[in-house]
Amino acid sequence: MFGIGMPELIIIMVIALIVIGPQKLPELAKSLGKGLAEFKRATDDFKQGIEAETRLQDEKERLAKVVEEPVAAQHQEAAAADPYKTEAAEPHKAEAAEPHKAEAAEKKA
């Protein structure tokens, strides 16, 4: 307990009894106990909040990995099926190329 042994604790209690007096000492001890209990409760709440945030972050990371694995596998399968077809591997590029195809067809006509 902070390196304070029984003899030191008894000396502190005797000094407190002399300085504070026997009437106010129980009130002081009661308020000190309430203050320590409130401090302990606050630190426990803080600790639980930090642990909850840590668990939430770990769960988000785990779910992100679970979601990424099938998507990456689908992209690899599509690329392996037809590596020259850009529409399967990169659909956003195929959509961007369509207006140019329409313009090219109009110029030929």
TrEMBL record:
An example molecular function term from Gene Ontology annotations: protein transmembrane transporter activity
Low complexity compositional bias, start-end: 70-81
Keyword match Metal-binding: no
Matches recorded under Pfam families: TatA_B_E (PF02416)
Membrane topology label: Single-pass membrane protein
Biased composition (Basic and acidic residues): 84-109
A cellular-component GO term for this protein: TAT protein transport complex
Localisation per UniProt entry: Cell membrane; Membrane
Gene3D superfamilies per record: 1.20.5.3310
Main localization of the protein described in the UniProt heading: membrane
Segments for region (Disordered): 70-109
Keywords: Cell membrane, Membrane, Protein transport, Translocation, Transmembrane, Transmembrane helix, Transport
Domain of life of the source: Bacteria
Transmembrane segments: 6-25
Biological processes annotated in GO: intracellular protein transport; protein transport by the Tat complex
Subunit structure: Forms a complex with TatC.
Family: Belongs to the TatA/E family.
The protein's role, per its UniProt record: Part of the twin-arginine translocation (Tat) system that transports large folded proteins containing a characteristic twin-arginine motif in their signal peptide across the thylakoid membrane. Involved in delta pH-dependent protein transport required for chloroplast development, especially thylakoid membrane formation. TATC and TATB mediate precursor recognition, whereas TATA facilitates translocation. Part of the twin-arginine translocation (Tat) system that transports large folded proteins containing a characteristic twin-arginine motif in their signal peptide across membranes. TatA could form the protein-conducting channel of the Tat system.
Name recorded for this polypeptide: Sec-independent protein translocase protein TatA
